[in-house]
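Lecture notes, unit on binding sites. The following record was shown on slide 14. It pairs a sequence with adenosine-5'-triphosphate.
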Amino acid sequence: MANSRFEYVKEFETHMRVLPETYIVIRIDGKNFHEFSDYYQFQKPNDIRAINLMNASAKNLVLKYKSEIICAYGESDEYSFILRKDTQLYNRRIDKLTSLFVSYFTSQYIFLWDKFFENEVKLDYKHLPMFDSRCVNYPNLDVIKDYLTWRFVDTHINNLYNTAFWGLILKCGMSNREAQEKLSGTLSKDKNEILFKECGINYNDEPEIFKKGSLINKKGEILHIDVVKSINEIFKGF
Ligand code: ATP
Ligand code: ATP
Ligand code: MG
Ligand code: MG
Ligand code: MG
Ligand code: MG
């Protein structure tokens, strides 16, 4: 049908591009993973199999686009991929970047599922994972560093809350509602104290992968480090 009189419909397509010479962040996030994690009975607050699966999927994506990616950072059901400001990947087209990243990630996640959940839990075709994706443009390195810091701080806040919440339920026998009420309005130091005194958990002794999330560098190495302290090192040369 090439060059037919119908071809004019192609003119309706728009090709939005990310501004040149600006950093690109593509963030994917699991759709309704609250329910997804319930359905597959993820261990709470952190199922290490699910985290390792997210990391392995993201690592394969980083390796596929290794010349374009500075680093990637993940926690829970999300991952952010930070691209060089001079990348020409897919001509910087927003629809291509968002759709291809999320579809490659999702393919990896499904393909690798059995490796991490082994035969304990099988994926059910009525409950397959979906991820959303967005592409955001950042003008300079300072904002990019703040972006990564924002996600890192979020990991800490969420993990401290979730560890305390599930500690109260699993170790102290509280109901979800009681745990929620107990934590309402508390500061970080209060949560640390509740965990220590009431649940017998020293938050400092929790695994780094839970407390710090996962940073994947250009080489595809997965690190669980203090992103804020390492921020200048991570972006050296970019
Ligand atoms: P949305 O579709 O708006 O993103 P959501 O249910 O996915 O909704 P999120 O804010 O993305 O909400 O939260 C993801 C949820 O997935 C967490 O709150 C947690 O319940 C669950 N989850 C993700 N990863 C893990 C994990 N490794 N172990 C246990 N639970 C997890
Ligand atoms: P782009 O990434 O730009 O889409 P492409 O290689 O996917 O590049 P398309 O114009 O989308 O290019 O064409 C898809 C190609 O895939 C076809 O030209 C054909 O070679 C191949 N293909 C797709 N479906 C089939 C099929 N069912 N049987 C054989 N070949 C197929
Ligand atoms: Mg969301
Ligand atoms: Mg989600
Ligand atoms: Mg999320
Ligand atoms: Mg094609």
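Take-home: The chain has eight helices and six strands.
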